[in-house]
Design goal:
6-stranded mixed β-sheet; alpha+beta; 181 residues; 33% helix; 4 helices; globular
Length: 181
Amino acid sequence: MRVARAVEAARSSARTAAEEVEQANAAYYAAMEAGDFDALAGLWLDTTDDVNDGDGSDIACVHPGWPVLSGRGEVLRSYAVIMANTEYIQFFLTDVAVTVHGQTALLTCTENILSGAPAPEDEEGPGPLLGQLVVATNLFRRTAAGWRLWSHHASPVLTRDDDEEDGPDEESRGPGDATPA
């Protein structure tokens, strides 16, 4: 009976940690949507965090189509650039999965993104809206202040429309013509 309670308590705390990670992840995307740079910066590991003994250079980020950005300063500058050049952005997250191991958590999700740029100078109203499908891996570390982002990696998802221009359709592919992942 005592072991069963211990197992249940461990499961309960794991659920709680996973829920905390999901909340931190939701705060990250909410800060992006709101264009709140200060809130976003507060969600990334900092040199003052008890789990980060270094200078913040171990923080990493890969935006779709960008090279690897390393270090807190470089990562946060990228978000400042994105926020300054994005009139509107909204994320609909699907396929969210969280795994917690001690003080580290891995969250994967699909970002269904709706974004818009400013309208051209000669036009009134909002600019064009674009939809994009991106898969993301967000790595978190637990600190005294809560879960903080350690790494964000996002990659665009190849859609059927993208694939049609590049090669044969699935019906004409042979069994050995699998598309690499």
